[in-house]
Write a structure and sequence with these properties.
By secondary structure, the chain is of the alpha/beta class. The protein contains 9 helices and 10 strands. Strand 8 and strand 9 form a beta hairpin.
């Protein structure tokens, strides 16, 4: 039995500003996806705002990174990325500006790196929910977020993206070609407010901005999804039968989900949020 060996990550290594020669590549990879989904980027209070600032984004699928790249164009950013994303691609991720982070740990070194990015005059991109959304709605944010904002002393911007979960949910990441999609880029907290507001007030403002529901958004806009395998993989989330209450007996395929225990069956119709 062979054991894969990796060099230990150097967590102390200073963050690299996104390399100039890689920036056009990130744009070339991002813009076609944004155009294909006809993403509408709405900017609120962003006029005149330049980096450095802390960009807080919701996180539903991989296209988030592409929309973020377009939303902050032409500025460059440093992204906070979990360490497992660095395996076998450390050189690339570091050079496009990613900063390594170990999950579920308090990390003072990361805070130091973020302060350095601010000193460089770049954008710090953080996904505070720390994972893909499981069901297209917001998650609990850490209370330490407000304290981080006060420590960095730079403006806070939020990017709340809509349609990404219904387009490519984590339980079945196939592209459903949802369009149009939306992203709202908001200047939420000014530099002056980071010094005058209490960290609890900052947290309250961020939590309010982070309330979203991809299914409600889809229904309001009457977006239909013709992808045939709309339910495939859904049992990974809906593992608890709502009919007989048995756990881990749910199965899914095509546009149907069912319980193997009570044989109850549901059909996912073309408008999400509607289950027959």
């Amino acid at each position: 039995m062979s054991i894969l060996k990796f060099d230990r990550f150097d967590m102390l290594k200073k963050p690299i500003r996104q390399r100039h020669f890689l920036r056009p590549i990130t744009w070339l990879l991002s813009y076609p996806a944004v155009w294909a989904h006809r993403v509408k980027i709405i900017k609120v209070g962003m006029k005149g705002l330049k980096p450095p600032y802390l960009l807080l984004c919701n996180h539903n699928s991989f296209i988030d990174f592409k929309v973020t790249t377009v939303a902050i164009f032409p500025h460059r950013a440093n992204y906070i990325v979990a360490i497992d994303g660095f395996i076998r691609r450390e050189w690339l991720l570091r050079n496009v500006g990613c900063i390594c982070k170990r999950k579920f740990t308090n990390d003072t070194i990361l805070v130091r790196h973020m302060k350095r990015v601010a000193e460089n005059g770049d954008v710090i991109v953080l996904y505070p929910e720390a994972r893909y959304s499981l069901c297209g709605t917001n998650a609990v944010l850490p209370e330490s977020l407000g304290k981080l904002v006060k420590l960095l002393k730079i403006p806070v911007v939020t990017l709340i993206m809509h349609g990404h979960h219904v387009n490519s949910p984590f339980w079945n990441i196939k592209n459903r070609k949802v369009k149009p999609m939306e992203a709202v880029l908001t200047h939420l907290i000014t530099k002056e407010e980071t010094e005058t507001l209490d960290y609890k007030e900052i947290n309250e403002r961020i939590n309010t901005a982070f309330k979203y529901d991809d299914f409600a958004w889809q229904r309001e806009r009457k977006i239909r999804i013709s992808y045939p395998d709309r339910a495939k993989g859904l049992h990974k989330v809906l593992y608890h039968c709502p009919n007989c209450y048995t756990e881990y007996h749910m199965m899914s395929d095509g546009n149907k989900i069912w319980c193997e225990s009570c044989k109850k069956e549901w059909e996912i119709v073309r408008v999400w949020g509607e289950i027959a």
